[in-house]
Amino acid sequence: MNKNLLSRKAACNSHGQDSSYFLGWQEYEQNPYDPISNPDGIIQMGLAENQLSFDLIESWLESHPDPAGFKRDGAHIFRELALFQDYHGLPAFKKALANYMGYLRGNKVRFEPNNLVLTAGATPANETLIFCLADPGEAFLLPTPYYPGFDRDLKWRTGVEIVPIHCSSSNGFQITKTALEEAYQRAKKCNLRVKGVFITNPSNPLGTTTTRPELDTLIDFVLAKDIHLISDEIYSGTTFDSPGFISVAEAMIGRDNVSHRVHIVYSLSKDLGLPGFRVAAIYSGNDDVVAAATKMSSFGLISSQTQYLLSVLLSDKDFTIKYTEENKKRLKERHGQLVDGLRDAGVSCLKSNAGLYCWVDMRHLLKSKTFEEEMKLWKRIVREVGLNISPGSSCHCIEPGWFRVCFANMSIDTLDVALRRLKTFIDSGLSSHDSGRRVRRPSLAKWVLRLSSWDRKSER
């Protein structure tokens, strides 16, 4: 097709699909593992999806048939849900979501429903905030490593730049004042106006919660620089071990001078395992941001049926308490299974307490401490071992040899298969390309050539 017929945005190649994160997805989709029909296929360990507690939600649905059946107290409400709903959202759902967010934060903070802006997923929530806070050519600072999809979500349509805050394993990849200032000065040297700092808490891909000292440092920093802070807290309900999760909303208590510049993103995709429902929200104490984001939300609304169903589910406090506690228990058990299996293979992880993944240290498996060697190892793990994991370079980690490995999107048996494959690969000494198992795959040349035309939805 003649690209002159397209807009510059449609024709540009800045979507980020050439990242190894998305390449791993492509390899998996061409040859997905199935224990019966394709036992030699690739196991998907690059998807941060929570499939551990579906049975709890399914049980609730069986005992509460009305919400999913367009009914309220036995009476049909199909017409009510089918007709136009404005982009402010159903009041009952916003109230239920605000209360649930408060519950996940130990009811230490209260969220006002009127300060919530509903969006069809965390991706549009984050992009909407960037649209509200920055103009093309301006910048946000992001601590590394960060979720690879942010290179698309925050930049592609907004024209905003990302400047990395370089964090290292020497302190567990924690955010420091020095690292923040270095990133800020780097942006200035590139003639980029910094409009804010963007963090994920709990961290994707680290699986760690942001500490109170880090949050205090971040708040002090945005106040000193007169900029914004966005806290993506979509994994807040996945914290399964100490230290507990501390929301930036809690860190702001007693600091009224900062509420207008701090904004939170929340979603039900991870905590309830409902990414297909496309439910997320922006929470802000800035009335102008809420007003602007609400207008923008008309381009990505949540269906009325979904809002109604989830308003009833989230209003059932007995269920939400039972679900949250049991889900965290299951996450902890599955996390332990992965960590133990990796340890048996001679591989360690960053100590983590949240999320649906581990930040895995394979630096000792590299022939040299370079990103070139990291990519060689990653390609062998995907193409020969048959595991789609995410290399640290795709997350902009500054140290070669780290990988994000997900554990909650598969069965226990599948995770066991994955761990056995990896152990066999490592025990073989990584010396022979032909001695280990090899999965069916296309030639590397075709794999690379397909990048320009391939587009994949993300985990968010």
From TrEMBL:
Pfam families: Aminotran_1_2
Domain Aminotransferase class I/classII large: from-to ranges: 43-422
SUPFAM superfamilies: PLP-dependent transferases (SSF53383)
Alphabetical list of Gene3D superfamilies matching this protein: Aspartate Aminotransferase, domain 1, Type I PLP-dependent aspartate aminotransferase-like (Major domain)
Record's keyword terms, sorted: Ethylene biosynthesis, Fruit ripening, Lyase, Pyridoxal phosphate, S-adenosyl-L-methionine
Class of this enzyme: lyase
Reaction it catalyzes: S-adenosyl-L-methionine = 1-aminocyclopropane-1-carboxylate + S-methyl-5'-thioadenosine + H(+)
EC id: 4.4.1.14
CDD domains per the UniProt record, alphabetical: AAT_like
Cofactor entry: pyridoxal 5'-phosphate
InterPro entries associated with the record: Aminotransferase_I/II_large, Ethylene_sulfur-biosynth, NHTrfase_class1_PyrdxlP-BS, PyrdxlP-dep_Trfase, PyrdxlP-dep_Trfase_major, PyrdxlP-dep_Trfase_small
PROSITE patterns for the chain: AA_TRANSFER_CLASS_1
Entry keyword annotation includes S-adenosyl-L-methionine: yes
A GO biological-process term: fruit ripening
Pathway the protein contributes to: Alkene biosynthesis; ethylene biosynthesis via S-adenosyl-L-methionine; ethylene from S-adenosyl-L-methionine: step 1/2
Family: Belongs to the class-I pyridoxal-phosphate-dependent aminotransferase family.
UniProt name for this protein: 1-aminocyclopropane-1-carboxylate synthase
Species the sequence originates in: Elaeis guineensis var. tenera
Organism lineage: Eukaryota, Viridiplantae, Streptophyta, Embryophyta, Tracheophyta
